[in-house]
Design a protein that fits this description.
homotetramer, Tetracycline Repressor, domain 2, DNA-binding, DNA binding (chains A, B, C, D), HTH tetR-type domain-containing protein (chains A, B, C, D), DNA-binding (chains A, B, C, D), Tet_transcr_reg_TetR-rel_C_sf (chains A, B, C, D), HTH-type_Tx_Regulator (chains A, B, C, D)
DNA sequence: CATGAATGAGAGTTCATTCAT
DNA sequence: AATGAATGAACTCTCATTCAT
């Protein structure tokens, strides 16, 4: 399997690995990839810049290592939900909660994820594509087909599209927790305190999705 | 009203203004705000860097001027729809079409919009907030309340939340037209050719929204 | 015609151009191409490093500009000799004198020339080849063929080879004026003061060449 | 006798010594002294960088050790010719052949030799001077004086100068086998295939030297 | 109003050398 | 005797901004 760090990196104490990745996360999140300063990251992590380049061939490689790790976290959260019991609505609820938790727990990591959508970094997203979303796609599709078979949801819609729309809605929810831009946006739509009530937010989103899935959505 | 360019800028020939803004758009879109080179923009626009700084106090101001202009385009598209006849579903359809057109016509402008969500630029988004979305919020709210009053849609949901979710879905659609990252994401969900069929995309999204609005979404 | 500096360089005062090239020459001569520090060169020349990069795209381009200029000096010296009257022996004598003068006057320039033979710089010599020696080759060949026709020298040898050997001998003479290595070498062969007597050196070399050209060189 | 490696170096297996020197030779030849990376050399040699510094006090010492070894090879070739029978012309022929063989067999070693003439390395050549050429000087002088005594060659020229010129010519021949710069130079003088015909090259040079030694070189 | 040469702080990256194990 | 992780000064190059003309 392809990795973006040199092999030395895995042989240093885990605590040091964490310090380096965390320093990277906070710098990348705060200043974006082009604005981040790798010498500053090294200093924050308490290592020399020379060591930094012993572990990662370039600023880009450090960034990709962080992204991949973030993706790992997401994927394992997803797998847990995938393996759990409950119907589609319960599972989606779990996903929404997981997204909220993730965004609350690792806001910086999520901010970095967001940054990858900027064009200056498109060559990076191309490097990672495929790895990125395939996990969730399969999960969604299986869940939706099952629910259709059980007559739980409207089966006239294409499961792939539904999956995309739901995932979009959840992703946007997450963005609203981390990105200043989306925070502002949310305040404008919902008032200044909307972000404080996770329960309300989850409930509203779930209700919206529920309707879409039940789907009196037939356009006559 | 606050502007980000110096007043001289408005006094030069409109054609020159366009050349400058267009050069900026293509550079910012291609390389992101931090990666963009303002000397290159000046050269592309056929003006001197000295003049550039006569018109705009900083790289940031040029960027903000461009964003604001983009926003103007969006706002006027919205107003046109707002003023048109038709029920909520027809209006939403118009919005989806408009979003597609906008993304197809000004992909670079839209890319820049996207970039603003990155944290490195959060101080910029804070500067612009308020201007950005207030237009659409009012439009949505009016439209939804009206539809509720007419019994066209489920009235148990909060209009503000519905507005946000719909806008999120449309925004994501737009992202999928411009950002490499979202393009890849869409391909993973829908296969390699999904982006070629605008009709299919619009129909699917509208059906999803229709269901959500009709809303057998009551969670018992 | 291809140049290695940007066009701005030619538009700045000649005196400044000279200061920059001279600073470059002395730094490159003293420390070799890889050892030379372009920031130091800029400082020595009294300009900012930013300006340096406005004039030359890279350290390499500055180097190549200097080399080309050196070549120009050589070429014009050669042309003068070429156009002068006198038989082959007189012309070769002039060349030897010119080589001595050049080495005495521009020892650093000549040192740089020498450095180009090192493998680390082979990509540079490839860039310049063709430009480099074609001038002298034509000059030599014409001169030798003429002398053969006049019966002045042995005509059984190939003019091209003779030209190469003579040029080699003169080149080595020059090296002995500039390179520490060749200076040491010469001292070992000729004693510590050999380099002080230009006359002796010229006379010895000319006598050696004279014999070779007259050429009882037939190998039975 | 002065050596440039630490004494430990001689106590490790000879095969390891060879591996280290060979790795050094190929790296120095390819990238020059300043460009060579001593960590890379250690890796290529299959030893740790720590050991490298146990054997050699510095990058420079490794380089000097290699040079000295190269010099040993040259010296022994010379001694063999020195001890052989034959007149001066036969011996010079042997030297030319030896030079060709050496350049063909150890092109990298010879390239390194060449690099030493660059000024960035002048402090190194000063360190080595004396060792370098004294062997050949004595050899030449003895050979030439003998030939003069036998009336084989013109005795009006200074044996030391003749020795230098002949050695210069042979050295240049060698350069033409290894240095890209001199290869290009030779092609310009002799056409693209000159380097393929060792016989022709040897014959031409010998004929030239023969004439010079026979010396109708008296300048009236 | 317009120009564009000039600036220099600061970026990412390299590598000879050290030293604890 | 051997290891190789760690160091950090030093390098080349970029670019937002200024200012004399």
């Amino acid at each position: 399997m392809e990795t973006y760090h040199k092999s030395v990196f895995t042989r240093i104490p885990e605590e040091k690995q964490r310090r380096i990745l965390d320093a990277g996360i906070s710098e990348f999140a705060a200043r974006g990839f082009p604005g981040a300063n790798i010498n500053v990251i090294a200093r924050k992590a308490g290592i020399s810049i020379g060591s930094m380049y012993k572990y990662f061939g370039s600023k880009e490689d450090l960034f990709l290592t962080i992204i991949e790790q973030a993706h790992g976290l997401l994927a394992s959260a997803l797998e847990e939900i995938d393996g759990s019991s409950g119907d589609i609505f319960e599972k989606i609820e779990k996903m929404v909660r997981a997204a909220q938790n993730y965004a609350r727990q690792y806001p910086e990591l999520h901010q970095i994820y967001l940054d990858m959508t900027s064009e200056g970094l498109s060559h990076l997203s191309r490097k990672l594509s495929g790895k990125m979303e395939t996990v969730s796609v399969n999960f969604y599709e299986r869940m939706i087909r099952e629910a259709m078979a059980q007559g739980l949801i409207d089966s006239r819609q294409n499961p792939r599209w539904i999956a995309l729309f739901i995932d979009n809605l959840i992703l946007m929810l997450q963005y609203s927790y981390t990105s200043d831009y989306f925070k502002e946006r949310m305040k404008i739509f919902l008032g200044p305190n909307a972000l404080d009530d996770d329960e309300k937010m989850a409930a509203s989103l779930l209700q919206f999705i529920h309707g879409a899935l039940k789907g009196e959505g037939s356009l006559k």
